[in-house]
């Protein structure tokens, strides 16, 4: 069996008082002609700018950082969910107002609210403003809605990433992926097919700092299968063991089982998606890195399609890289 050797708009807003659901307004993401006349926002994905005065930050900052800078699962080193930078309100300038993602924290008497604004000072931009009478109440307000707030910033980043990678994507989808029933996918130009079988494909991309693999395989979908998550992991592990070699003689790749694999679920236009994030290692050798796998449940065709990004990038931070690869996996459209 052939193996691969690896070296390793206009601003729209909604105000939510504490205790209510953080639901967006129906038209909050509509972009008007005026939005295109705004300056471009600055900053890259997973960067978040905080506007918060020193006294308030000293009282609530640690608790907020715990959520926003929580280490991301599925990476070999501890890397934060967001890279944070903070400014007091009297230091805000025209440049800092153009940050891509902004969280503003302030105290106001007799007022507790969360305001969500898109394209307030730049485009594309998401600004969330939180106010409360005291630092303690502001902390409680944040804790009550932290998951929803984080999700909004992540979705904002995903949309920006989608637009960014589309400019560097292959104009035509590789035939190897079409053969698996993929109609469309944003895939970087550097990827080339290295293994192509009827139900299994591997593509590879070499960059200055990494070696990246895209591994895709198809299996029948059985609705009554309640062990599908573990089956996907077993399938990926077997495919990696049989198709990837390390540098050292007789070495091969496998999934790292000592660290739990993180499993999440999502939905795209009615298609159910199972997400796996974890690490791989070299058996009988050295080296490893992160992987992320999206499995699309194609009920119409009674099958499931798994697509995995596998990255070897020693001595390099991987959070931003993995976000870009996830954006590619999220762009999949099935035939």
Give structural attributes.
about 325 residues; 6-stranded mixed sheet; alpha+beta; Protein Transport Mog1p, Chain A
Explain what you see.
With 335 residues, the chain is of the alpha+beta class. The protein has six helices and 18 strands. The strands form four sheets. Strands 9, 10, 11, 13, 14, 15, 16 and 17 form an eight-stranded antiparallel sheet that branches. The protein has a six-stranded mixed sheet with strand order 2-6-7-5-3-4, covered by helices on one side. It has a two-stranded parallel ribbon with strand order 1-12. It is elongated.
Q: What's the structural blueprint in terms of helices and strands?
A:
Layout (H helix, E strand, L loop, with lengths): L3 E2 L7 E4 L16 H4 L10 E5 L2 H15 L14 E5 L13 E7 L5 E6 L7 E7 L2 H32 L8 H4 L3 E3 L7 E6 L2 E7 L4 E10 L7 H16 E2 L6 E4 L6 E7 L2 E13 L4 E11 L4 E10 L6 H12 L2 E2 L1
Parallel strand pairs: 1-12, 3-4, 3-5, 5-7
Antiparallel strand pairs: 2-6, 6-7, 8-18, 9-10, 10-11, 11-17, 13-15, 14-15, 15-16, 16-17
Helix pairs in contact: 2-3, 3-6
